Amino acid sequence: QLVLQESGPGLVKPSETLSVTCSVSGDSVMSSIYFWGWMRQPPGKGLEWIASLYIQGGTHESPAVRGRLTISKDASKNEVSLRLTSVTAADTATYFCVGGIGSYAAPPFWIDTWGLGTLVTVS
Amino acid sequence: DIQMTQSPSSLSASVGDRVTITCRASQDIKSYLNWYKHEVGKPPKLLIYSASSLHTGVPSRFTGSGHGTEFSLTINGLQADDFATYYCQQSHSPSLPTFGGGTRVDI
User: Fold this and answer.
1) Tell me: the pLDDT tens digits for A76-119?
2) Pick from A60, A112, A117: which is nearest to B95 by CB?
3) Which of A15, A110, B10, B49 would bridge B104 by S-S if both were Cys, CB 3.0 to 4.6 A apart?
């Protein structure tokens, strides 16, 4: 069973860089089954997709964060990471690591597993 | 971008009730629609994928239907642990998945 656990800084100052990591257990981040991604949920609001990373290394990024975001995976640590630069208060949210089923270029796809999430406040 | 609109945004129901949540897409997404349940303090869970396929382990009281731009999630015989927020998500565009605004189901 795939289990995802996020860890983050809790508090980040405006204009600085937010970094969160996701520890993956139950499968390898090099798995051919899953793509990896990040979702976020601002306080009191709904879910927002921000990025996906596929086995071949291809990525999709939300226009809301494109140019500020790096998503990557580390096979040696079995981790997925998110780095978001030049943060503002609008980036305050609970960040969820996800494992999904689907391909880079075509539907369908779905999010099979979610982490519990880590709250990051920009202030 | 494909916009997803859920209704209602919230509803109150009782144990045993039948509840239906609807989701409308701004363009034809065929059957590329997923449903998730999110309880406070827990990770979201996949309920339904591809509009009507029940995810492994999800009780059969959850059913999904629809095609094109109109979709629905029905819970037949609401149970105590069904009180949560439900989200639809279009899976037509891997490059830009979008969620509905959520429907909160309260006691």
Assistant:
1) 999 999 999 999 999 999 999 999 998 888 888 999 999 999 99
2) A60
3) B10
d(CA A123, CA B4): 31
* Nearest Cβ partner for A108 among B32, B43, B95: B32
Measured CA to CA, the distance from residue B17 to residue B15 in angstroms comes to: 6
B43 neighbors A97 (Cβ within 8 angstroms): no
| pLDDT > 70 in chain A, percent | 100
CA distances from A118 to A20, A91, A111, B30, B73 (A): 8, 13, 18, 34, 28
A112 is written with which tokens? 């099979």
Residue with token string 């990591």: A21
**Residue B97 predicted with pLDDT over 90:** yes
Query: Which B residues, 55 through 74, put their C-beta within 8 Å of a C-beta on chain A?
Result: 55
**Sequence letter at residue A42:** P
| Residue A94 bridge partners (DSSP) | A41, A119
- Cβ distance A94 to A119 under 8 Å? yes
How long is chain B?
107
